[in-house]
Amino acid sequence: MSEVFSIQIHNRQFFEQGKQGVWLELPTTADRLQEAMRQVGISTDNPQDFFINGYSSPEDRRLALPYDMVLSAGVDELNYLAARLEPLAPAEVAELNAALTRPHEGFASIGQIIDYPDNTEYFVHLPGVDTPSALGDYYLHKSGMVEMPEEWKGGIDPYRFGSHIAKLEQGQFTPYGYLVNSGDEWQRVHEGQPVPEQYRVMGLTLPQADRTEQHPEEKIKNPVRVNQGYTILESVEADGVEFVLGENPKAVQPFVTWRRLDGGGPTDFTWGHYFTDYQAAKRDLMGRAKEHLNDRNEGKPPSLRAKLRMAQESRPASGPHRHTPEKER
User: Fold this and answer.
1) How many CB atoms lie within 10 A of CB 133?
2) 108 lies in a domain?
3) pLDDT digit string, tens, across residues 248-280
4) How crowded is the C-beta side of 218, counted as CA atoms within 13 Å?
5) Is the pTM of this model over 0.85?
6) Would residue 41 count as lying in a domain?
7) Range of the domain at 155
8) Dihedral over Cα of 261, 265, 268, 269: its sign
9) Do residues 84 and 114 touch, judged by C-beta distance below 8 A?
């Protein structure tokens, strides 16, 4: 496995003490993740202190992933993303970066980015074309689509021509070039599905706390589920989908509700809704389960409200105020 991008994992207590986090290259393995967690003092005693503090990509293969989206994602989901992006050709990476930095209609979730390798024909990408004038010049002199004597083309203003074309085909200028939809339909393959088993490195595999003795009454019969630092407190099953409520007392928004599809791993949670109040989170938990059952029982497509909720980006509570860390290379 070669590095696609790296994440910096951290311990909230260490962070507050001014200590550095540990960079973890993705894709990774469960053993490497556990070793990194040991280095930052994360164990079964303090899973709520774990958070992602930044991400970095190699100089020769930059990725323009949305920073906040990476920090709010789960490690398993990011590991799967890295594995999916690893085989991309340089031209496909450039196209993806253009799609990631579109001023409008950008990716709404990590799951959508995971699906990009199945949709490389969804866009037409013109690298280096980042202004209306450059687009006008491309269409006039390089595309082969404007048939007229060359001396006539000199009378056409490239800026106005490029602006007109971009408006007609609803293209967008990005720092990585011009991007327009090809007309192909986007194939939703992995978005919303559990992370495949071979890419799950987080789960419940936190390092054991260093103890010389443990009393029988301290042993937990049923393993506590923890996701992104939130301990799962309550769970509701609704027709093959589990909805859960989690708490992280140290988070800015200490309560969250997630959904998990039947058959997924114990912490394959998606579509988080975050709250500062327990009662509000509890109402949301029951409301999501009820809405899911109503949509299924009535035999109709999900309501507009449900579609909007499912399309929302997971926005976990941010960690402590911090500057973007840089990885030494």
Assistant:
1) 16
2) no
3) 888 777 889 988 876 666 667 888 888 888 888
4) 7
5) no
6) yes
7) 123-181
8) positive
9) yes
